[in-house]
Design goal:
By secondary structure, this protein is α/β, with parallel strands linked by helices. The chain has two domains: 2-110, Metal-dependent hydrolases (TIM Barrel); 135-217, no CATH class. The chain contains eight helices and seven strands; from the N terminus they run βαβαααβαααββββα. The protein has helices spanning 10-19, 29-41, 43-47, 53-58, 76-85, 103-108, 112-117, 202-212, and strands at residues 2-4, 23-25, 64-65, 135-138, 155-160, 163-167, 184-187. A four-stranded antiparallel sheet has the order 6-5-4-7. Strands 1-2-3 form a three-stranded parallel sheet. Bound molecules: zinc ion. Residues 3-4, 26, 66, 68 line the site of zinc ion.
C-alpha cells in the first residue's frame, strides 16, 4: 500500500503493479491546488499528472481516493468531482485530462477498493447481504448528472450500521442544488432488511452490482 503518491512517475505505476502495491491517491489536489502546482511548484509536466488515477486505471490496478482532512474538507462529493473532472477551482483548467476516470471507477475508489485496502471488504465497501448497513443516500445519481455538477450533489442521509446518523433538513438545501426526491444509495456498506425501502431505485441496484461484481468489482 502506498499513501498519497502525489508526484508519481508513470514507470513507478508499473513497479507497483508488479509488486502488488495499491496506491491511495489524493485527486482533490487538482481542485484546490491544481493551478498552484501547474504555475508555481512543479510545472505542467508533473503538475498535470498529480495523483495519477488514469495511469492506475489503464493498468487495471486498484486504487483509492483520500482527502487528507484536515488539509482539505472531508467532502465526499468534492472528492468524487475531483477524481472525475480534475477541474482547478481558480482557472477551471483540467489538470491532467488523461488522469480523469469515469464516475463508477471514482465511486469504487471511495468504497469497495479502500475496504479492500483495509482488509474490510467482507463487511464494508458494497451493499451486500451480510455486510454492515453503512451507506449514504444522495440527492442525485452521480452517474447521470453532468460531471461538472457532481460537487453540487447533497448527501441527504447517512446510515451507520442500520441507524440514521445524519439527515439533511429540507430547508438546508442550497439554492444551487434542486431537490431530487429519487434517493440514490451509494454503497460503502450493505445489509439485509433495513435497506429495503431505499433499495427501490434501480440505479442503486446497478451500482451495487457493479461494485460487488467480479475482478473489477474490487
Ligand atoms: Zn494524502
Amino acid at each position: 500500500m502506498l499513501i498519497h503518491g502525489q508526484f508519481l512517475r508513470e514507470d513507478q505505476l508499473d513497479s507497483f503493479k508488479a509488486l502488488g502495491v495499491i496506491p491511495s491517491l489524493f485527486p482533490m489536489h487538482t481542485f484546490y491546488w491544481g493551478d498552484w502546482h501547474l504555475d508555481h511548484t512543479v510545472g505542467p509536466q508533473a503538475g498535470m499528472n498529480i495523483s495519477p488515477t488514469g495511469w492506475a486505471l489503464k493498468r487495471g490496478m486498484l486504487f483509492s481516493s483520500h482527502h487528507d482532512a484536515p488539509v482539505a474538507f472531508p467532502d465526499s462529493m468534492r472528492v468524487l468531482d475531483a477524481t472525475v473532472t480534475r477541474r482547478a477551482r481558480g482557472s477551471g483548467r483540467i489538470v491532467g485530462p488523461e488522469q480523469r476516470v469515469d464516475v463508477i471507477t471514482a465511486l469504487k475508489a471511495m468504497t469497495i477498493w479502500p475496504a479492500y485496502h483495509h482488509f474490510e471488504e467482507k463487511t464494508k465497501g458494497s451493499l451486500e447481504r451480510g455486510k454492515l448497513a453503512d451507506f449514504a443516500i444522495l440527492s442525485k445519481d452521480p452517474t447521470k448528472v453532468e460531471p461538472a455538477t457532481i460537487a453540487d450533489i447533497k448527501v441527504t442521509e447517512t446510515v451507520k450500521e442500520g441507524k440514521t446518523i445524519f439527515k439533511l433538513e429540507p430547508g438546508a438545501r442550497t439554492a444551487g442544488a434542486a431537490p431530487d426526491i429519487t434517493p440514490l444509495l451509494v454503497a460503502f456498506g450493505g445489509h439485509r432488511g433495513a435497506l429495503a425501502d431505499a433499495c427501490a431505485h434501480d440505479a442503486m441496484f446497478r451500482m451495487t452490482a457493479v461494485m460487488a461484481g467480479g475482478p473489477t468489482g474490487r
